[in-house]
Design goal:
Low-confidence stretches: none
Helix content: 40-55%
Bound molecules: iron/sulfur cluster
Largest sheet: 9 strands, mixed
Distance between the termini: 30 Å
Radius of gyration: 21 Å
Number of helices: 14
């Protein structure tokens, strides 16, 4: 199977209230040295990625953070570095961009650098929700960004929405969905807000306070209804629901993200980037300043290198594969499993039979999937299954 490449750019203009990713607001002076370090990591460490070095790459994803903050020439240099070390003819090269960072000049430069897909962090079309979430952009920026991207030639744009932002109501959610559908992106992601205890919003939810509007977060039932209404309206509009949080027009499923759910190999570059070569998983150090230092001193930034055991691989097949609406081919997993895994699989099969009778999963004797009306509680279903 062909290889995916992920490049992490861990910088943002501000910190969203709900975010607990390893991203930081840093001086712009640090952008260029970071981009140069990534290029150097690609050049100097690509050869350590056996057995994937020199492999054919069919997807590249620059995520973050907000990679669109970097100068387009710096982004182009990263793509160029990849071209030199891999059989490079990817069908999909995605750049994550925040709406307020899209200008006509940037959009043209991104196309020239080789990007053919933009994942635009739209999140909501309601200014009160965007303001409370600490986002830099407003609804007008989303319309303008999509117009500029289309004018520059992008024919593959993904927009996302978050269900559960503070002040979200039935009306504002419905309005956000309508505006999104009006823009007709090729791909849509809908996330249910998860309140992480380490985020400012999470701390406020635990300790109390009003600064981040934790008290205005909708109830879980309301979030689930938002998600379900999105499922219905996106289906009606011709979008294929292919993963719990993702929908695409025909032929526009995200190739790169599919690799994660199918356990295909991908290599990550940059601070905090994760990799999986089919046998091992590893991550680079999270601290971006330390990452640049390591690369400058010729020290590998990799840590947490671990062999994936057959037991872990089996759990991953379920945990990741069941995020896809198609589910997993249990008959194939049973056929390929080593003798040491037979008992575990038999145990899972028993549990599946019980869960199918409760309507939590659907199983036709070969393919297993989470029941479509249980997708809002998919985490709980997975925990019960693998528990
Ligand atoms: S833009 Fe994304 S990565 Fe950056 S702070 Fe907001 S949610 Fe986190």
């Amino acid at each position: 199977m062909k290889l995916g490449i992920y490049i992490q750019v861990p910088f943002c203009q501000t910190k969203c209230t709900y975010c607990n990713f390893h991203t930081g607001v840093v001086s712009r002076d640090r952008y260029r040295p970071y981009a140069e370090a990534v290029c150097r990591e690609i050049s100097e460490y690509a050869s350590l990625n056996a057995p994937t070095h020199g492999a054919a790459v069919d997807s590249v994803y620059l995520g973050g953070g907000t990679p669109s903050l970097l100068d387009p020439s710096a982004l182009g240099n990263m793509i160029e570095a990849l071209r030199q070390h891999y059989q490079f003819d990817p069908a999909e090269i995605t750049l994550e961009a925040d709406p307020e960072t899209v200008t006509a000049e940037n959009a043209r430069a991104w196309i020239a650098a080789g990007f053919n897909r933009i994942s635009l962090g739209s999140q909501s079309f309601d200014d009160a929700e965007l303001r409370a979430a600490g986002r830099m952009h407003r609804r007008a920026d989303i319309f303008q960004a999509v117009e500029l991207l289309r004018a520059a030639g992008f024919r593959n744009i993904s927009l996302d929405l978050i269900a559960g932002l503070a002040y979200q109501s039935d009306e504002s959610w419905s309005e956000s969905l309508s505006e999104l559908l009006r823009l007709r992106p090729e791909h849509v992601s809908i996330y249910m807000l998860e309140i992480d205890e380490g985020s400012r919003l999470g701390k406020e939810a635990l300790a109390g306070g009003t600064r981040y509007s934790a008290g205005a977060i909708p109830e879980e039932d309301a979030m689930a209804e938002f998600y379900e209404s999105a499922c219905a309206r996106l289906a009606q509009a011709g979008y294929d629901h292919y993963e719990i949080s993702n929908w695409g027009l025909p032929e526009k499923h995200s190739r790169h993200n599919l690799k994660y759910w199918l356990r295909a190999p991908y290599i990550g570059f940059g601070a905090g980037a994760h990799s999986f070569d089919g046998h091992k998983r590893w991550a680079n150090i999270h601290d971006s300043a330390r990452y640049v230092e390591c690369i400058g001193q010729g020290i590998s930034p990799r840590e947490q290198i671990e062999d994936v055991t057959p037991e872990q691989a089996l759990e991953e097949e379920f945990f990741l594969g069941l995020r896809r609406l198609d589910g997993i081919d249990l008959a194939r997993i049973e056929r390929d499993a080593s003798a040491g895994l037979r008992n575990r699989i038999a145990e899972l099969r028993n549990r599946i039979t019980g869960m199918a009778s409760q309507g939590l999963v659907e199983f036709d004797g070969a393919r297993l999937r989470i029941a479509p009306d249980r997708l809002t509680v998919s985490n709980e279903v997975l925990v019960e299954l693998l528990g």
